[in-house]
Input
Amino acid sequence: MSGCQGCKPKNLSPPPSGRDLVKITIGLTIVCLISAALLGGLYSFTEPAKLRNGKAREAATLRALLEVPETGRIEEIRRYLTNDLRAVYLTPKFLIGLDENGIEKTREPVPEGLDEQKRDEWARARQPSRYVGRFFVGKQGEQVLGYVVEGVTTGYKAKVRFFVAMDGQMNLRGVEILEHEEDPGLGGEIVKRYFKNQFAGRSADEVQGIQVVKDPLVAEWKAALESLGPTPLSAWLPQHREELGRHKVIYAITGSTISSQAVTTGVQKTIANFRKRLELLKGAL
Output
């Protein structure tokens, strides 16, 4: 027989005493506090740099979409809604309040020397409201080069956030997908040039009536769309205007018609809403 009944186990340590448990607890607490302090310090060091890098990438995207030269500038216009659903716009120069019918009721000059956060705080204090969106105006001197509007739509899985760029005559300069959670290889293809560049070069009116089709994308047209991006629109469009005119639809991503239609519908709604707002704000821009 192996083993014996009633034998006492050997080499077993006694359970920790209450004093030992207190020491262990204090030690773990100190380790957690040190770890939290290190993580907090790392966050406070990296977060400002992350925000700066994000702003720099955004600015580069805006300049590329509008082809704003280095001597030009891009102005951000922020939109707020008050508790009684009145719209308020914060431009670089004015805080403009509209009534429930969209008619301008108030206009206050923005104090000079405020950074982005301080301007936002000042606007909320003057007109208690919540932030609901923004758009950008590209300028060279006092000449408006175009607009970039931030939009959101519901994709197959979640929200899709994007930019729509237009010139001063409401012709689309491009669409840029900023955030999405669509499936890789399927809906995730909305970020590809061959899909998002199908909007570029068309008028706003044309895009409003455009349809999404399941037809296969012609290889030559796909190659042309892929070349837009490395090639600026101002150089690309004269070469492909006739071809653009022959493709009067948006070709859906294979297997992802829902994502393709969601982006198209989102772009259409964003343009329609922006054109209404622009009419109200032309005098302030």
In short: Helices lie at 18-66, 116-126, 193-196, 204-208, 219-227, 233-246, 257-281. The chain has one domain: 63-281. The chain is about 40% helix and 25% strand.
